[in-house]
Design goal:
- It is a single chain.
- The protein is 36% helix and 29% strand.
- By secondary structure, the chain is of the alpha+beta class.
- The strands form five sheets. A six-stranded mixed β-sheet has the order 3-2-1-9-10-19, with helices on both faces. A five-stranded mixed β-sheet has the order 13-12-11-17-18.
- Helix 5 packs across helix 6.
- It is flat.
- The chain starts with a strand and ends with a strand.
- The relative contact order is 0.16.
């Protein structure tokens, strides 16, 4: 079983079956008895809409476990859902994709959560490596491959060759920070208080990283709470102002890409110029992001065929070619 334990979404891959589960990484908990009321999509609908005794939370922040107990509950729930009606998967071997910049303590927390959730063996793989394998890059060959994986909580920039990471940089600025920038912009400029889900909707509907042809047509009515009157209000926003709102976190991502390119050995840099840069993760779906990176670096940027699933597809390919790709793991633990 391969798991992409993401800040925003968790995806599960089972050998021979493909991707069997794709759910938001959200858990709704009854605060009195600490029991989960809903997990995944059902819990996401409750974000910002719960009564006092119920709390809907995301157990992962910036790509790492922020609430260990809740993360364990969530993993257990997803593993059990995948097991329903199946035999022979009682204590599975699990490969989990994690950000390359996490500490040893954070790695152990992920391993422990998976072990407690019923895994037999737990293997960890760095997300950029898994994303590159999932995107179909030839990571086993002696050529330079560059991948940018923009998730919910972290952006991973890595140069890979011969099944290993030559250079990598992990910045804790990604999809969540882009949504937060929109949230703050709406508060400052329009005096409108909106929730996380609304900010994410704005980003998906009219957000862009680079001026597009249809920019002037992209407008959206946003509903929220007006700061001055304290009453619900609808405000019309345009695409260009949302792009301006996201400029700061996007600059952090671009700087991380440039720093990685500056440190790349010349032979590998030549390969990257020939092959281009691969863009993966949910952040790759932001309109014009590939154009912005290409404009800033002067290198062609390709968006993966299925950017959201790259990491989990990579974990699945590693499971199915275990002996050939055994060197890509960054950590492991055995339970039995």
């Amino acid at each position: 079983m391969g798991i992409d334990l993401g800040t925003a979404n968790t995806l599960v891959y089972v050998s021979g079956k493909g991707i069997v589960l794709q759910e938001p990484s959200v858990v709704a908990i009854d605060q009195e008895d600490r029991l989960p009321l809903a997990v995944g999509e059902d819990a996401k609908k409750m974000l910002g809409r719960t009564p006092g005794n119920v709390i809907a939370l995301r157990p992962l922040r910036d790509g790492v476990i922020a609430d260990f107990d809740v993360a364990e509950l969530m993993l257990k729930h997803f593993i059990q859902r995948v097991h329903e009606g199946r035999t022979g998967l009682i204590a599975p071997r699990i490969v989990i994709g994690i950000p390359s910049g996490v500490t040893g303590v954070e790695r152990r927390a992920v391993m422990e959560a998976a072990s407690q959730a019923g895994a037999r063996d737990v293997y960890l793989i760095d997300e950029p490596v898994a994303a590159a394998i999932g995107a179909g890059l030839p990571v086993a060959e002696p050529t330079g491959n560059m991948i940018i994986d923009i998730g919910g909580g972290t952006t991973e920039v890595a140069v890979l060759s011969l099944q290993g990471t030559v250079l990598s940089e992990s910045v804790r600025v990604a999809g969540d920070e882009l949504s937060e920038a929109i949230l703050n912009y709406m508060k400052k400029v329009h005096n409108l208080v909106i929730g996380e889900r609304t900010a994410e909707e704005i980003k998906i509907m009219i957000g862009s990283a680079y001026p597009m042809e249809d920019d002037s047509d992209s407008i959206m009515d946003v509903r929220g709470l007006h700061l001055l009157s304290g009453l619900p209000r609808t405000v019309m926003v345009k695409g260009p102002e949302i792009r301006e709102a996201m400029a700061e976190p996007l600059t952090v991502i671009i700087e991380a890409v440039k720093r990685t390119l500056e440190r790349t050995p010349p032979e590998l840099a030549a390969d990257i110029i020939d092959r281009g840069i691969m863009l993966a993760g949910g952040g790759a779906l932001l309109k014009g992001l590939d154009t912005l990176i290409s404009h800033e670096t002067g290198i062609v940027v390709h968006v993966a065929a299925d950017p959201l699933s790259c990491v989990v597809l990579g974990t699945g390919r590693v499971l199915e070619n275990f002996k050939q790709l055994e060197r890509v793991f960054s950590g492991r633990s055995r339970n039995f």
